[in-house]
Amino acid sequence: MKTTILMLILLLVLPLPVLAQTAQPTPDDPVTNKRAVQLAEQLRCLVCQNQSLADSHAELAVDLRRQIREQIAQGKSDSAVVDFMVERYGEFVLYRPPMRTATWLLWFGPPLLLVLGIVLLLRYVRTRRTRIEQGPLSDAEQRAAQSLLVGDEGKQR
């Protein structure tokens, strides 16, 4: 009976260290916590660069999340917190850069490159089709092609 109770206690206590490692300290107020998470999702981790502050486990990201919580605790608005981060770390910290003349290439560059690639592909296909439709090869072109084919067959053997 004692061993059963001891095993039961061990099974209940065993997961506690795992839970302690994954739990992050959060403020008592769930609204404040939600604001901090939303702000951290809007800002980029300066170390990882492809993750938001909310997703990153880098030490700098942890520090920046702490700064966000401190600013919220001081009563600053969301825009004031974001402005503080931009002032301190530059616009690179923003996960979505603002729409300005300097960032037009970021916003419109990829779609323009896609359209340009499609136009160039269609133009190439059209010119290739007209070259094929223009007729058979001349005698000189056929001899050159035949010599290339014979040369390739000789190398393969």
Model description:
- The chain is mainly α and 157 residues long.
- The chain has 2 domains: 13-96, Orthogonal Bundle (Helicase, Ruva Protein, domain 3); 102-156.
- Helices cover 68% and strands 0% of the residues.
- It has helices at 2-13, 16-22, 30-42, 59-73, 78-89, 104-133, 139-156.
- Helix 3 packs across helix 4 (59-73).
- The protein is elongated and about 95 Å long.
- The chain starts with a helix and ends with a helix.
- The model is unreliable at 18-25 (pLDDT under 50).
What's the CATH first level of the largest domain? Answer: Mainly Alpha
Average pLDDT value? 81
Percent of residues in β-strands: under 5%
Helicity range:
55-70%
Q: What is the assigned CATH homologous superfamily of the largest domain?
A: Cytochrome C biogenesis protein
Tell me the series of helices and strands, N- to C-terminal. HHHHHHH
User: Number of helical segments?
Assistant: 7
Sheet bearing the most strands, described?
Answer: none
Overall 3D shape: elongated
What's the alpha carbon Rg, rounded to whole Å?
32 Å
Total beta-strand segments:
0
Named at the architecture level, the CATH assignment of the largest domain is: Orthogonal Bundle
Class per helix and strand makeup: mainly alpha
Spatial separation of the terminal alpha carbons: 84 Å
Please give the oligomerization state of what you see: single chain
In the CATH hierarchy, the third-tier topology of the largest domain is known as Helicase, Ruva Protein, domain 3
Number of domains: 2
Low-confidence segments = 18-25
